């Protein structure tokens, strides 16, 4: 049986407020998809609707080719991991894993086999006799994940499961979740506002904004070819540089002009007003006493450093190696990799493609 999830023209409203609007999405069997976006974009609302925890206003939801739009959560063939661990404090880790199976009336031998399997996968075997208060945050979250695994459902939902953990634990659990998906090959839908989680985990990312999907694609495509101005700005740290100007004809490539800045594009584009974006790592800085840019601030991040460079009209953020010899006040020349330019419409915010 395929574990495909299909959402058709889904709308969700709270009173007169639209939370999700006419959203359609197909998640393939065994795919790891991440719903990414800022707070309030509708990503958790969409996940809760798939889980059956929210009523939908319009549209349909299919899981394993079955219409579950109005089905109870227990009848949808899925399991969910929440942001909070929600473990029973008086039960051991093993008892927490087994509880839902006992309620479902499974045989003791079947319960033990499922708990042992999940504990082995998640490296919980030495911890099964401990209560939640005796576990670290990462261990508690692994128990919460295990509680979903023992149900042996083909579709797993994760609602920001790592947001309560510190940076080191987030990295460790991220790897665990990735390995878990590679091992089990469940269909996995994961909600986060953290772009690093999304980029490292997902087969595809659905970037959400104002209740709609702005773009759905692989992490590489999302990063290199953002479909909208919002996606371009939301993805990437430091954020993409933007400048407003005019595209004019050139031979063989168009020109982009913005105040004192004249750049040759890598192809012919429609003429007219546009916004140009380029990522900080696609700009190369060179010390030049005659350069038109002044280095204002240097931020060291370890392997890299971030330069804030300004001329009369624009400030550009540049990402370069940590051994860059410049200091605040130095003059610079900046070289732009025109193969990495993105152009966006000033009216629609959508990506402009070459003619």
Automatic annotation (TrEMBL):
InterPro entries found in the cross-reference section: AAA+_ATPase, ABC_transporter-like_ATP-bd, ABC_transporter-like_CS, ABC_transpr_MalK-like, ABC_transpr_MalK/UgpC-like, Mo/tungstate-bd_C_term_dom, NA-bd_OB-fold, OB_MalK-like
Pfam families documented for this protein: ABC_tran, OB_MalK
GO annotation, cellular component aspect: ATP-binding cassette (ABC) transporter complex, substrate-binding subunit-containing
Keyword Lipid metabolism: no
GO MF annotations in UniProt: ABC-type transporter activity; ATP binding; ATP hydrolysis activity
Keywords: ATP-binding, Nucleotide-binding, Transport
Annotated PROSITE patterns: ABC_TRANSPORTER_1 (PS00211), ABC_TRANSPORTER_2 (PS50893)
ABC transporter domain mapped to chain residues: 5-235
Keyword Disulfide bond included in the entry's annotation: no
Gene Ontology BP term (one): carbohydrate transport
Protein name per Swiss-Prot or TrEMBL: ABC transporter
């Amino acid at each position: 049986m395929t574990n495909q999830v299909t959402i058709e023209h889904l709308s969700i409203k709270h009173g007169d407020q639209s939370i999700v609007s006419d959203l359609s999405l197909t998640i393939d069997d065994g795919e790891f998809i991440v719903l990414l976006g800022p707070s309030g974009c509708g990503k958790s609302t969409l996940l809760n609707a798939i889980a059956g925890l929210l009523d939908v206003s319009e549209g349909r939801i299919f899981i394993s080719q079955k219409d579950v739009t109005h089905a109870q959560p227990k009848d949808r063939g899925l399991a969910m991991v929440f942001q909070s661990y929600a473990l029973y404090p008086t039960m051991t880790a093993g008892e927490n894993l087994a509880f839902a199976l006992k309620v479902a009336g499974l045989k003791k031998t079947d319960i033990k086999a499922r708990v042992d399997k999940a504990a082995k996968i998640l490296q919980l075997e030495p911890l099964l006799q401990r209560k939640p208060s005796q576990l670290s945050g990462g261990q508690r979250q692994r128990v919460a994940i295990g509680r979903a695994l023992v149900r042996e459902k083909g579709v797993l939902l994760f609602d920001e499961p790592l947001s309560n953990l510190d940076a080191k634990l987030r990295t460790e659990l991220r790897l665990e979740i990735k390995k878990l998906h590679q091992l089990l090959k469940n269909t996995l839908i994961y909600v986060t506002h953290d772009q690093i989680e999304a980029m490292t985990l997902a087969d595809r990312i659905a970037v959400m904004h104002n209740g709609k999907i702005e773009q759905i694609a692989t992490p590489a495509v999302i990063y290199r070819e953002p479909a909208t101005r919002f996606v371009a700005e939301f993805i990437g740290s430091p954020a993409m540089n933007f400048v407003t100007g005019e595209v004019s004809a050139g031979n063989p490539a168009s020109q982009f002009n913005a105040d004192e800045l004249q750049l040759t594009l890598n192809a012919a584009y429609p003429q007219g007003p546009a916004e140009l974006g380029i990522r900080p790592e696609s700009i190369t800085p060179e010390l030049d006493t005659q350069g038109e840019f002044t280095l204002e601030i240097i931020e060291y991040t370890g392997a890299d450093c971030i330069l804030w460079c300004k001329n009369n009209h624009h400030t550009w953020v540049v990402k370069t190696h940590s051994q860059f010899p410049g200091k605040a006040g130095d003059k610079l020349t900046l070289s732009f990799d025109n193969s990495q330019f993105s152009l966006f419409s000033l009216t629609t915010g959508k990506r402009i493609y070459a003619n």
